[in-house]
Amino acid sequence: MSVLTLAVLDGQMGVPSDLPMPVQLTIAAAAGLAAWHARRSWWPLAVLGAVAYAGLVVWPPLMLASYYAGRTLPRPRGIAAYLAACVAVCGIGAIVGEARDGLQELLTASLGNALFMMLGVIGLPVALGLWTGELLRAAKERAERLEREQVMRAEQARTQERARIAREMHDVVAHRVSLVVLHAGALEVRASDEETVRAAALIGGIGREALANLRDVLGVLRSPEGHARQEAALRPPPTLGDLDRLLDQSRALGITVTRHDEGEPRPVEPTVERTAYRVVQEALTNVHKHAGDAGTRVRIHYGTDALEVEVRNDAPAPSGAADTPPRAPRGGVPGAGWGLVGLRERVELLGGTLRTSAQDGGGFLVSARIPA
Q1: Cα Rg of the chain, angstroms
Q2: Confidence class for position 147, pLDDT limits 50, 70, 90
C-alpha cells in the first residue's frame, strides 16, 4: 500500500506531483500503517483514504477501505451509509478540483472521469468485498454446522456406549450381587450359631449397599441429567464421616484395623473427602484380597494445605499359625487389576499424588497426598 500510494503521488497519469518528497513519504507511510491495521479496524484507513482522495486524488487507501467496508459492514444499511459518505467525499473532491485546476480538476470535476473513478475506486472494491464476505460467512457457517454434527455424533456414540455398559452391568454384576444378598439372607435365617448369623447379616448389608451404589451408577449411565441424578443426590457419596463404618466392616471380617488421626480436623472440599475415602476403601479391598488377616493401620493427617491418607498393612500370618483367626481365602476374590490405576487417576485429577510400595517384611503401603 505504501509503494502504490507513493507511485500515485509521484506521477499519476504521467503528471508528477508538486508535493515535496518528505510529504509524499509521510502520506505513503501513513497509508501503509493504516492498511496494516485494517484487519483489526479499517476505519483509520477509510478516514485517511477520504482525506487523501478529496484533497490529492490519492485513491489506493480509499479503494482498500471500500473493500473492507463491503466485507464487514452490515447490509443493506451499513453499505448504503458507506456509499453515501463516499459520494460526499467525491463531491468534496470535485469542489477541490474545481479550485485547483489541472489534473485534479480533470479527474474529479469532469463527470465522466468522476464516475469512472467512483466505479473503480469505490464500486468495484465494495462489490468484491461483499462477494468475499459472503464466501467467508458461508464457509464459517458450514464449518460450524460440521462441528455441531460432529459433537452430536460423538454425544450419540457416548450415549449408546453408556447404555451398553449399563445393560452389561445390570445383567451381569447386579444379578450376581443380588444372588449374594439373597443367599446371605437365607443363611442368616437358617444358621444356628450366632457367629454365622452375624457374618451373613454383614454380607447381606454390604451387598445391599453395593446394589444401591450400583443403581446410582446405572442411573447416571442411562440418564445423566434425569431422575437418576436426583436420586443420587438423596444418597450423597461417602466421605470421611463414613470411614469408621468402612473400618468396622473390615474388622467384622477378622482384620485388625486401627485408625489414627493427626493434625487439627477441619472441613475440606467434598471431592477431597470422597477421594480420601476411596483411597482407604481400595487399600482395604486389596488387604482382603491379598493379605487376608494382616493387621492394618489407617492414618489421616490434616496438613495446612493438603490431606494425607496412609494405609499400611503387615505381612499376612502364615497359614496354620497358632492363635491366629481364620483368614479370608486367597485367590477367591477376582480382580481386574485396575483398582490402584483408577485410584491414581482419581487422586491426580485433584492435583495430588499416590504412592504404593511393598514394605520390608512383606507388608504394603498405600499413601496419598491430596491438596485441600
Answers
A1: 40
A2: very high
d(CA 73, CA 71): 6
Angstrom distance (rounded) from CA 338 to CA 168: 18
Residue 311: what pLDDT?
A: 92
What's the pLDDT score for residue 326?
A: 43
- Helix, strand, or coil here: 73? coil
Rounded to two decimals, the pTM is 0.47
**Distance (Å, whole) CA 314 – CA 333:** 20
Beta-strand relationship, 306-313 and 296-302? antiparallel
Count of Cβ atoms closer than 10 Å to residue 133 Cβ? 18
- The rounded mean pLDDT for the chain is 80
Give the mean pLDDT of 222-249: 68
Sheet containing 306-313: give its strands across.
257-262, 296-302, 306-313, 364-371, 353-358
What is the domain partition of the chain in residue ranges?
A: 2-109, 242-318+336-372
Which DSSP symbol is given to 250? H
Q: How far apart are CA 285 and CA 291, in angstroms?
A: 10
- The CA-to-CA distance between both ends of the chain, in Å, stands at 59
Judged by phi (left if over 0) then psi (alpha if -120 to 50, else beta), residue 20 lies in beta
pLDDT interval class at 325 (50, 70, 90):
very low
Please tell me which residue, 24 or 235, carries the higher pLDDT value.
24
Cell matching residue 53: 482522495
CA gap 120, 129 in Å, rounded: 13
Per residue in 63-90, pLDDT (tens digit) is 888 888 888 888 888 888 888 888 888 8
Q: The C-alpha cell of 177 is what?
A: 450381587
Candidate from 62-66, 92-96, 231-235 with smallest mean pLDDT: 231-235
Buried b (16+ CB within 10 A) or exposed e, 287-321: bbbbbbbbbbbbbbeeeeebbbbbbbbbebbeeee
Task: Please name every residue paired with 366 in a beta bridge, in sequence order, or none if there are none.
Answer: 311, 356
Instruction: Tell me which CATH homologous superfamily contains domain 242-318+336-372.
Output: Histidine kinase-like ATPase, C-terminal domain (3.30.565.10)
**Whether the Cβ atoms of residue 228 and residue 222 lie closer than 8 Å to each other:** yes
